[in-house]
Amino acid sequence: MSTKTDFYLRRGISAEWLGSVARDAHPEDLLAVPPGRLALTTTDETTYRDAVNDLITVWACEDLGEAYPRRGGWPWPWATSHHTDWIVAFDRGENAVFLTVGGGVAWHRINPRCPCVPEGEDPLGPPDIHAWLADPAAPPSVPMPLMRDPATGLPTSAGAPL
User: Residue 137 CB: number of other CB atoms within 10 A?
Assistant: First the structure.
């Protein structure tokens, strides 16, 4: 089964989607690719944006999986990243990279010197999987921008191609 990761600048409903990768796109897999490691460990917004763009290019060129740059538009049939396996975001206010899971209830700040995913019984995931399955975007899930209009299935301005 393919693992999908979405990349954002900022967190919350005003986050800017930068692109996505799929197939073996766990954080550990991203760290094994130089621009992925840079994207997950940078403390600079410009470097983060450039590293994500480079990762998307490398992901496609080296046949690591599917790569979806922003210019191609939102690639998923679902409306928000609440259905995506992993979400990575750079927070300008903290000059740090954070990650969560689809339906996640918390953000994990990545330590740039020792990047790793929190261990244990899914500390980022939803506490009630049945409630999450009924409505992945409902609280206590972290807020995400609406990328596709649920009524029409069409991309919103947040998910439209550049």
Answer: 19
